[in-house]
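TOPIC: backbone geometry
CONTENTS: sequence, structure tokens:
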Amino acid sequence: MPIHLLSEDVAARIAAGEVVERPASVVKELVENSLDAGATRVEVETRGGGRELIRVRDNGTGIPTTEVELAFRRHATSKLESAADLETIATLGFRGEALASIASVSRVTCLTRHTTEDTGTRLRIEGGEVVARATVGRPHGTELLIEDLFYNVPARRKFLQSERTERNHIDAFLTRYAIAYPHIAFSLVHDGREILATSGNGNAPETLLNVYGMDLGTSLLEIPEAITAQEAIRVSGFVGPTSVHRANRGYITLFVNGRWVQDLRLTYAIIQAYHTLLPVKRFPVAFVSVTLPVADVDVNVHPAKTEVRFRDGDAVFRVVQRAVRATVIDEAPAARAWESPSTVFSEGVASSDTAMRARLAALTPAARQIALPQTETSAEGAPSAVFIQGTPPASPDNGLTPTTPQPPKTETPKTASGVSPTLPPLRVIGQAATMVIIAEGPEGIYLIDQHAAHERVLYERLITAWMQGQVATQPLLKPEPVSLPVAEAAYLEELLPALLALGMEVEVFGPGAFLVRSVPALLANLSPADLLADIAVSDEQSPIHTALEEMIVRRICKRAAVKAGQVLSREETEQLVRDLERTANPRTCPHGRPTIVQIGVEQLIRQFGRG
């Protein structure tokens, strides 16, 4: 094929791919344009996760009538005059690509009126071509309607994710900007339902409550201005105390000169500021805004303007780390003591009804294996069901109580590799480093991770109880209110039927608010707020499909299991080992991490020079 110039239409669609990745990208570009236009009120509305409609309305300065069509031309901008201006960019938008890119892959209606004009303009564009223009009466400001996103790029439209996922991306973006700009009133409506509304009165703590909910919003600590007041690099925002943490980095938000960015080094600086202060593999909640001279930061790095480059990255790293750590250490309250879980479990009963078969079909193969009853051969040769026996109510101080011994199996099942997944009888020796149980077996020494082992035990108990429709529940004496951030609350609403099937009765109590009326008896001593916060973290991006119930059970068990650092009595360690021996898959926790490290007799002999 000979070299040739691409047509304007093809070039525009290719360029659009750099700026418009998904509906949230459209919202980002339009909202940033509204902020640059001096808007004090920004309203966002979507339908169909942004596929069908995105409407962004503001009360900014608007676009002059003579420049409306020009605004949708590639490389047209009002924010740069010369190449020298690239060194001192102070606006959020500047590339002149956003409107042109959006218009090339959608049907756009632009309604705008400049503050100096008496009438407004209505412009209709389809696939980058102007199809209608009219003079209209309207308030000053701009309203953009983006319909049928990617209608002319079916490959891009096909690879969009579910409506819920696309809504979550929009929620995440707008809530970040609502916190960063508390003096601007933001509103967000999905499919006719209001998700977010801020007052725009400049009260940052009030905005935190609107975005994060009462529980999380009131717990965050404000970074004092005095920490960086004498420096060119200033840090502000809010960070969580050591008692507030999450399972991933999704609650770490960074702004640089008013622009939301993704920066691995600054994220790591915040995580390092909590070094030794948080449990292992837990991450802080932080909203950190960095302000520095515009000449010291290059924002022209990525087409979507989500990455920046600093003139002195090490200096920014140090200032952010120091400001966050000083805030946490000086102002954070003492962490709450860990509450031991209850391990109340209802005795399993065989079931073969339609509901059980449907639940079984939804499980992954690994969960299906532990959910099915194990079998042994009776004296008459016919298979008979053998179930894990239920435990009596646990004492509140340890969560580990004796259980009825399981009848011995006549045959140990084998894995594909021929290795038994079950454990031989073990003799507990003791506990090391308050995290590892040391036991002796016929094949050497066994080191057991107490947290991972307890996770496995609780997981198999709860999955089996759910499969048989007999999850023991514990009604709360008083319904407990729980508030969650916008995105997590929307996701949790979709999980309510699955939670009910697992013995957790939760009902909607308003925007971002829920009432917990009962919990699984297994979790009677846990905080419903902490539990729901863990459950509400979406797994949408996971490449592995699992049933919602199975995913929830994994998170429940991770929260309820004994932790590393928890001192266990001799009786508790022995009971945990006995319980682990009775599980179907004792060698890994529900997340796939090993529960046991074995040191063989031959290896011990060689270590002492006797081999």
The CA atoms of residues 109 and 124 lie 5 Å apart. The longest strand covers residues 473-483. The longest helix spans residues 313-331.
